[in-house]
Amino acid sequence: MSRTLRRLAVVTAACAATLLAVPAVASAHVTANPGTAQQGGYAKVSFRVPTERDDASTVQLEVDLPADHPLASVSTRAVPGWTAQVTKTPLAQPIQTDDGPLTEAVSKIVWTGGKIPPGSFEEFDVSLGPLPGDTDQLVFKALQTYDNGEVVRWIDTTAPGGPEPEHPAPVLKLTPKDTAAAVSPAATTTTDSGTGIVLGIIAIVLAVAALALSLFSRLRSRER
Description:
Strand order of the largest sheet: 6-7-4-10-11
Structural class: alpha+beta
Number of helices: 2
Radius of gyration: 24 Å
Order of helices and strands: HEEEEEEEEEEEEH
CATH topology of the domain at 29-184: Immunoglobulin-like
Distance between the termini: 13 Å
Pfam families: DUF1775
Protein name: YncI copper-binding domain-containing protein
Keywords: Membrane, Signal, Transmembrane, Transmembrane helix
CATH architecture of the domain at 29-184: Sandwich
Largest sheet: 5 strands, antiparallel
CATH class of the domain at 29-184: Mainly Beta
Oligomer: single chain
InterPro entries: YcnI-copper_dom, YcnI-like_sf
């Protein structure tokens, strides 16, 4: 019986170790939240930054705004401990606003001064608008810098129908004006995937535990 129990313990431990390693592989990325907004309107977008390293902290975030769809109004929310540096770039074609033509627009925001320790995340809020009506998404390329000098470039785009790249750029999906905003497909996939992983782990661990108890009960009954 002891040999069987030892084997069962080894199998259970191996399963648990493998399953617990899955969330690390499917770890969170730098994302734009919420994942959708309405064309022509204004939106508050939170760039959520998790620290995915066990031995380093995030100390800088750079977000590049899309040059092909410049935004007339961009403002940042103060984040305790962090300083936001906003860079503006001259526009090839001025943007017409209620206050007249706009000749430059924000092209980059860099947050520094703070620290996001391992196992934590921070959100950096930005108010954007008016959002363009001639595209169904805005891509914000982001660079995440750790205090060990490592820079993770969240700049890859997902091809239509293709798999998510290793370092996807934050994306804000745009829905037609006067249409109820749908949940972002990317956000839904991420959430559903994470939920499925957790539920799968729970189900398998419970199944292994139930099997162990069943075998143990059978062995005990035979000894009697």
